[in-house]
Design goal:
By secondary structure, the protein is mostly helical. It has two domains: 1-34; 39-109, no CATH class. It contains seven helices and two strands. Residues 20-59 form the S100/CaBP-9k-type calcium binding subdomain domain. InterPro entries: EF-hand-dom_pair, S100_Ca-bd_sub.
Length: 111
Protein backbone atom coordinates (compact mmCIF):
# COMPACT_ATOMS: atom_id res chain seq x y z
CA UNK A 1 0.00 0.00 0.00
CA UNK A 2 1.06 3.58 -0.63
CA UNK A 3 2.05 5.55 2.51
CA UNK A 4 -0.48 8.17 3.66
CA UNK A 5 2.12 10.96 3.38
CA UNK A 6 2.69 10.09 -0.28
CA UNK A 7 -1.06 9.95 -0.91
CA UNK A 8 -1.46 13.37 0.72
CA UNK A 9 1.34 14.79 -1.43
CA UNK A 10 -0.49 13.63 -4.55
CA UNK A 11 -3.58 15.72 -3.74
CA UNK A 12 -2.85 18.99 -5.53
CA UNK A 13 -5.57 20.95 -3.74
CA UNK A 14 -3.74 20.34 -0.44
CA UNK A 15 -0.49 21.83 -1.68
CA UNK A 16 -1.25 25.12 0.01
CA UNK A 17 -3.77 23.69 2.43
CA UNK A 18 -3.85 24.51 6.11
CA UNK A 19 -2.61 22.13 8.80
CA UNK A 20 -6.22 21.39 9.70
CA UNK A 21 -7.13 20.55 6.10
CA UNK A 22 -4.15 18.22 5.86
CA UNK A 23 -5.05 16.56 9.16
CA UNK A 24 -8.61 16.00 8.01
CA UNK A 25 -7.39 14.67 4.64
CA UNK A 26 -5.05 12.26 6.43
CA UNK A 27 -7.97 11.01 8.55
CA UNK A 28 -10.10 10.50 5.45
CA UNK A 29 -7.28 8.65 3.67
CA UNK A 30 -6.69 6.33 6.64
CA UNK A 31 -10.41 5.56 6.71
CA UNK A 32 -10.83 5.02 2.97
CA UNK A 33 -7.67 2.89 2.75
CA UNK A 34 -9.28 0.51 5.26
CA UNK A 35 -12.84 0.72 3.85
CA UNK A 36 -14.48 -1.69 1.45
CA UNK A 37 -15.22 -0.70 -2.18
CA UNK A 38 -18.49 0.91 -1.01
CA UNK A 39 -16.54 3.18 1.33
CA UNK A 40 -17.71 1.47 4.53
CA UNK A 41 -16.09 -0.43 7.39
CA UNK A 42 -17.46 -3.34 9.34
CA UNK A 43 -17.87 -2.64 13.02
CA UNK A 44 -14.97 -5.03 13.80
CA UNK A 45 -12.76 -3.18 11.29
CA UNK A 46 -13.83 0.14 12.79
CA UNK A 47 -12.91 -1.03 16.28
CA UNK A 48 -9.54 -2.30 15.07
CA UNK A 49 -8.81 0.91 13.15
CA UNK A 50 -9.64 3.05 16.17
CA UNK A 51 -7.49 0.92 18.46
CA UNK A 52 -4.49 0.91 16.11
CA UNK A 53 -4.62 4.41 14.64
CA UNK A 54 -6.12 6.41 17.51
CA UNK A 55 -4.57 4.65 20.50
CA UNK A 56 -3.13 7.84 21.99
CA UNK A 57 -6.64 9.18 22.47
CA UNK A 58 -8.11 5.87 23.60
CA UNK A 59 -5.35 4.93 26.03
CA UNK A 60 -6.56 5.15 29.62
CA UNK A 61 -10.22 5.38 28.62
CA UNK A 62 -11.03 1.67 28.90
CA UNK A 63 -12.82 1.97 32.25
CA UNK A 64 -14.90 5.03 31.41
CA UNK A 65 -18.62 4.30 30.87
CA UNK A 66 -18.79 6.29 27.60
CA UNK A 67 -15.84 4.34 26.17
CA UNK A 68 -17.50 1.06 27.18
CA UNK A 69 -20.76 2.20 25.57
CA UNK A 70 -19.06 3.03 22.26
CA UNK A 71 -17.04 -0.19 22.15
CA UNK A 72 -20.12 -2.24 23.07
CA UNK A 73 -22.02 -0.65 20.20
CA UNK A 74 -19.24 -1.79 17.85
CA UNK A 75 -19.54 -5.33 19.21
CA UNK A 76 -23.31 -5.41 18.52
CA UNK A 77 -24.87 -6.08 15.13
CA UNK A 78 -21.53 -6.86 13.51
CA UNK A 79 -23.09 -7.13 10.05
CA UNK A 80 -23.87 -3.40 10.04
CA UNK A 81 -21.33 -1.19 8.32
CA UNK A 82 -19.93 2.16 9.43
CA UNK A 83 -19.99 5.15 7.07
CA UNK A 84 -17.24 7.79 7.11
CA UNK A 85 -19.57 10.26 8.83
CA UNK A 86 -20.22 7.83 11.69
CA UNK A 87 -16.51 7.09 11.94
CA UNK A 88 -15.80 10.80 12.37
CA UNK A 89 -18.40 11.00 15.15
CA UNK A 90 -16.58 8.16 16.93
CA UNK A 91 -13.26 9.99 16.55
CA UNK A 92 -14.73 13.18 18.00
CA UNK A 93 -16.33 11.24 20.86
CA UNK A 94 -13.04 9.57 21.79
CA UNK A 95 -11.18 12.85 21.43
CA UNK A 96 -13.52 14.75 23.75
CA UNK A 97 -13.26 12.22 26.58
CA UNK A 98 -9.54 11.68 26.17
CA UNK A 99 -6.88 12.47 28.73
CA UNK A 100 -4.69 13.38 25.75
CA UNK A 101 -7.03 16.26 24.92
CA UNK A 102 -6.29 17.78 28.31
CA UNK A 103 -2.57 17.53 27.57
CA UNK A 104 -3.07 19.11 24.14
CA UNK A 105 -5.00 21.99 25.72
CA UNK A 106 -2.09 22.72 28.03
CA UNK A 107 0.52 22.96 25.27
CA UNK A 108 1.94 26.46 25.04
CA UNK A 109 1.02 28.07 21.74
CA UNK A 110 2.96 31.29 22.14
CA UNK A 111 6.70 31.96 22.21
Amino acid sequence: SIPIAKQLASIKALGKGSDLEKAFAATALVYYNAADPDGKLSKAETKSLLQTQFWGFIQGQENKPKYQEIISSLDEELEKKIHFEDFMILLVSFSLMSDLLQEIKSVKTTK
